[in-house]
Design a protein that fits this description.
With 343 residues, the chain is α/β, with parallel strands linked by helices. The chain contains ten helices and 14 strands.
Amino acid sequence: MTTPKPPRYAVETIGLTKTYAASRDGPAKRALDSADLAVPRGSIFGLLGPNGAGKSTLINILAGLVIKSDGSARVWDSDIETDMRRARSAIGVVPQEINLDAFFTPREVLETQAGLYAVPRRDRRTMEILDALGLGDKADSAARSLSGGMRRRLLVAKALVHSPPVLVLDEPTAGVDVELRQQLWAYFRDLNRAGVTIMLTTHYLEEAQELCDHIAIINHGKVVVSETTPKLLGRLDRKELAIVVDRDLAAPPPELGGWDVEMPSPRRLVVRFQPSVTPVGQILDAVAKAGLEIADLTTEEADLEDVFLRLTGSVFAAEEPTLMGKADPQAETLSVTRSRPSP
């Protein structure tokens, strides 16, 4: 039997739309508006946007917790409606909220989850996953006794029991300390190197800039931009050159009059310029012509926060309808049951 060729895109949406019906609390709300998204296989893909932009609605549609209003979505080349089982088995979702049964042990959590995905007992990797996430010694401890960081790691383990090729992380490092954040990302990088496509939402923009090779920004339900990280950062043709000179100045030298120059202290000049128009050497030549010697020199380029603010206009927006904890009102066939596993 020939092994099927892996898809070009791990996740692909075309015209994906979701409108929440009007209720007593307010009018109808369009949370997603014809969203087109293509997540390259093998990438770490960042999905960014202000609160209420539509990120979580999109994730919940992919996970099967929300019913789309229009458009299409595919996970690992399987349509989420016409090939639901394959699509669901190809994705693992780590929610932002900690949704664990307080009386289950990590071993029971993973064994139960593996059973829900019909993973044969001989193929289950319960202890392998727990050990990889530093939870092996807590395998038989009740979840209520675990620290917050351990519970978050357990959510990651739960999403991996069926070995999905796509892992979706919804704010995975929200509220965790620096050490745990570094540990989680080291593990996510290892997963990515092993071939797992990672789709990430985060409000830590510096984290997304460092980790993601592709980034999409969504705002008011629309995908504003979706590009590789270097190309996205290059959209802002802006750079700052901070120069410390050898003597005090009363004002910026006239030789720098062709640029936007700020002087925060008598010996410090900050020159803002467009790299596509002005090479750094031209500015340094102007400083030399002014008879100044450079004692120190630093540059600062536009970062992801600058691009984010430029494209969205604001970091604040109304919240989206609640996710992961409450089902979509239209998803009448979706039910969640919880039971204690048999001893």
